Request: fold
Amino acid sequence: MEKNRMEAFSDGVLAIIITIMVLEIKVPETGEGRFSDLLPFVPKFLSYLLSFVYVGLYWNNHHHMLQSCKKVNGKVLWANLHLLFWLSLFPFTTAWVGEHHDSSAPLAIYGLVLLMAAFAWIILLQTLIDANGRNNILAKAVENKTLKEKISPFIYLAGIVCSFFIPWLAIIFYTITAIIWIVPDQRIERALNNSEAEG
Reply:
């Protein structure tokens, strides 16, 4: 199967996720139109900002990953839907954390959704490798795991655990993981550039 339809569908879903997240931030209903009226919205905005970065990271890396593949199959389509399912929960968890940024349950659920999206990403990556063969650019590019791939699940787990004891530390762990992934997977970019140079 061609990958274009899956890529277009994924782009649309991610755009809708961002739109829903920003619509959760309501304008102040009280006050006199002063900057101070926005102070209660700071936690909501910061949770939106963090989730926006995460959606951007997935969109960016999704694009790079699909550039290195030529075809998809039924397993890839389902693996992609599995990833989109977890990402589609971002608006809910983001709004909950924005409302209760110092509470354990919202922060733990937020971390769990991040962790499950990361696992869904790994599954999608593996199904794409299986569909395109071990000699594909993607398979060769990611055959050796990077440090950030190895430690990210543990940082999420640390954040989930901390959410029950030190909520603000959980937010720091989730932010650190976003920061270390801010640069797209350079292995795939290098592999694509090498392939273009050879071809």
In short: The chain is about 75% helix and 0% strand. The mean pLDDT is 91. The CA atoms of residues 129 and 139 lie 6 Å apart. The two ends are 23 Å apart (CA to CA).
